[in-house]
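Supplementary material to the annual report.
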Amino acid sequence: MKKILFYLLISASLFTACEEKMDVEFNEEGAKKLIVEGSITTDTMPHKVILSWSTDFFSNDSAQMVTDANVIITDGTKSFKLTEKVPGIYFTDPSVFGDTDKTYSLNITLQDGRKFSASDRIFSLPVVDSVIVRDTSLYMGPDKGDVSGYAILYYGFEKPSPGDFYLWNLYVNDTIFNKYYWNSTFTDDKFVNGSYIHDFMVYFVENKDIKRDTNSIILETLSISKNYYNFLLDSNQETVWRGSPWDAPPANISTNIVNGAGFFKASAIKRNKILLIKKGQKKLTNKSVDFHRSSSEKPSFSRFPGSRMVLSFVSSINFSRSFAS
Amino acid sequence: MPARAQKRYTVSGHISDQSGELLIGANVIVRSLKSGVVSNAYGFYSLTIPEGEYELLFSYISCKNKTLSIKLDKDISINVDLEDAAREIGEVVISAERKDANIRSIEASVTRLQASDIKKISVLMGEADIIKSIQLLPGVQTSSEGSSGFYVRGGNADQNLILLDEAVVYNPSHLFGFFSVFNGDAIKNVELQKGGISAEYGGRLSSVLDVRMKEGNTKKISGEGGVGSISSRFTIDGPIIKDKVSFMLSGRRTYFDLFFPFLKDSVVKKSTVNFYDLNAKITYNINEKNRLFVSGYFGKDVNKFGSLFAINYGNATATIRWNHTYGGKLFSNLTFINSNYAYNLGVPAGSQSFSWLSNIVDYSVRNDYTYFLNPSNTLKFGFLTTFHKLRPGRMGEESKNSFFSNIKIPDTHGIESAIFLQNEQKIGPRLSAIYGLRISMFNNIGKGTIYKFQQGEREYSVVDTLNYKSGEIFKTYWGMEPRIGLRYMINDKNSVKASYNRTLQYMHLASNSTATFPLDLWFMSGPNVKPQRADQVAIGYFRNFFNNSIEFSFETFYKKMYNTIDYRDHAQLVANELLEGELRIGKSYSYGAEFLLRKQSGKLTGWISYSYSRVYRVIPEINNGERYNPAYDKPHNISVVISYDLSRLWQLSGNWVYTSAIPVTVPTSSYYYSGIKYPLYSERGAVRIPGTAYHRMDISLTYNYKIGKLDCSSNISIYNVYNRHNAFVVYFRDKNAIADETKKSTTGNSQVEVIKLYLFPVVPSITLINVKF
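Predicted assembly:
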């Protein structure tokens, strides 16, 4: 998926680009930083914050977890104290949920008294008209060629205000499909502000990735802040998209953790569940479930993994670089 | 010298080669007076000397000398055709006259190459390439392998004024930089000024690359063509009316995509990847006093990947020039120029179809004069004014079924003007000087939208939006740009030269990667962006050996640049109406020493160059304000360029280049987020990775023969002979995280690799046939 343009171009023009592993190491040591991975959503559930220390770049050691910290999420009026259930992993009470249009702060006090904080806002989501699953095939680059699978299509208006950001998660039989940021679809609304989004392929699930007994597909639509959008974009730029001469100079991934790194994310969340019905003993078909209006709608459109090539384009017109990478 | 109160008369005219091609920089020497002049960019010369009888000697590097006896008792006009010294195949030419321009010319830091020099240089895929040749000169750096970007004396890639028949070429590259837009067959002459920049040029800080197209044969139809491994090309030129009107038409096109339909891949099958360009010129020799030139360039890169995605880009330029002489001493050139660079990209069909367009258009008028006052003083003066219209981006109309809205980033407009005056003066037998002043001005004019920004730690935020009416001038910059060059002859074989120049730049390229990209946008100075400014001093020692057959030069320079532009981390440079908020401004400086040994005649020709140079940037909001090296800071540079005539029929040429490893930013520590390893970086450009110094050797063998009356040649070349895997890009990745996306990656399961991407192993290529008639 990396360097697609480049690859196409190169292969197309009889040039070849080859990779070679280099045997070098840098023993520069960076200062230890507190790493935060946390989120709060509009779901009622235990919300999680993971605290760890930064590690050496070239070592394979696990991160050292940060234990016995005092971790609190607050919206200014209500405060939720988090409990450490596993070393370094802190949970809120299961009854906790976030409200839209509120800003949530995360306050961390380490055992040694050092304090860290972060904040993020929950933005509201538009209404999702529908989510459709469709049989289709998709070109996945020169290696794979055309691949058949299921397109998860999104329909609905984008919010009329400019400056909205979205992330989608897809669950196939309750297992997350976009496990990593690099196969997650996310976008800004720069090119679609207020538009009716239709036939937008949020995800493409290859036939090989969907089991015969699959009966449910859940598309989660999340509102995210600009800062988190930048964090996702930077994450891609600094890892999987790297490796072309059109890359911008390496730079640290943005963060909202004061004095630390990582991200504390706040999101509104909506889910569309699609039930797939088996046709006889044969493979899944979406004909009978072509259309599904979920009661707890979710919205959006964005960055699509399979055709990242196309969408990385669209969604962030940072295309020149992201496309090239 | 006879300095009596004698009547003076002027002898003037044009100097051309035997095909009628005007010669730039040909010498006219009056032996008895030990003085002379050099023809200007339009082949015009003028000498005003006392009444008398003289022998005039006309000479030019690749031509036979010509001597004419004249009786000067009135103003006279003499046009001279110099016969080609170029030879029957393989014949070795030894010039009779010494060629000591290296030491005698006042300009230092200037290199001229002719099309024939460039064609001798072995290059990738056998495509003669002006920019690839320029990159082999001392003081000129490449960005990444195969790139058409170049960096002169620590200046950025956008600080080069690239002119094709006086029209600015905004993107000199084809095929993402692997080839340049200049077709060697259509080009007459190339001059690179990297220091002591003449007052007639401005608008870029670091260099001028002045490329001139051929005028076309005025005597008979001639042409050349070739079938290479990448492209085919064909040029035809000749008289429309003999000695009066001539034309030149040259085209080339790549053809590797013609094979795509035979490939298996469903998308590649329906893909198009090609580029083509056309050069055309008509020269009308109206009469002794008037000449008219009309020339144009059009080039395009077409890349279409099935119905998935398309990106096209190209330059178009048009130049109309009128040369007029007033009484033999005053030469005027009036030029109208249009230059256009455009790209569009998009997805052709479907609900996510879109098309994004961007372009930059220039309209210029330039009027410059050369006044041949006397053999000791040649004045140049004139003005130039350009209207720039930038259209940074807009959605096209063709997205009917698409859900993308039609957005548009506001256009910007500006007027860039300059007046200049320069004198080239022989102060004594040893000392000569060129001194001049350029005054330049830049106006931002409406309609326009300017954002006011407030500084932030990472990003700037908009605090105000100012809209300006159409035609309203809302910001003006101006500045003085003094230029001085001195040459002192120690004796016939040695000279020293010194120069100082100040340059200002009002147009900038938004690019923060090591290689320039076709989507990189130009933007202009304005309320948020001050003009870039540079001061450069250079001193050089020049010496010729062995009867001027070997030239040596040593030059050293220091350059200080103000309002240097860099970008915040993770800047969004494309499709961003708030682009100016992504800029981070500071200073930079560079210094270096350059050695060049060059041999231009004989069986063995070529050069060896070595330069040592450094460049630093200090930008308060980048790298914590600590100075850092941009990616093109490569201290050591060696180029060896050699061509050897083995026999009458065989010619061997080769190059070897070496450059130091580039500075890179490397991770010093890391962290886990969602089970993925994220890098934490050191300061910018802190490390040069061992083993990433660049070196490469190319060899090419040419066989010349005749078929009937046609001069033919075939060529085999090998790029990267010893198959060095030069790093194109070095990056870091977590093998476990990326190799298998389905694998459960947890903290501590990483395996970091340093990956080198290399582009060209050994690449052989064949040019089946080149024909000249």
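The mean pLDDT of chain A is 77.
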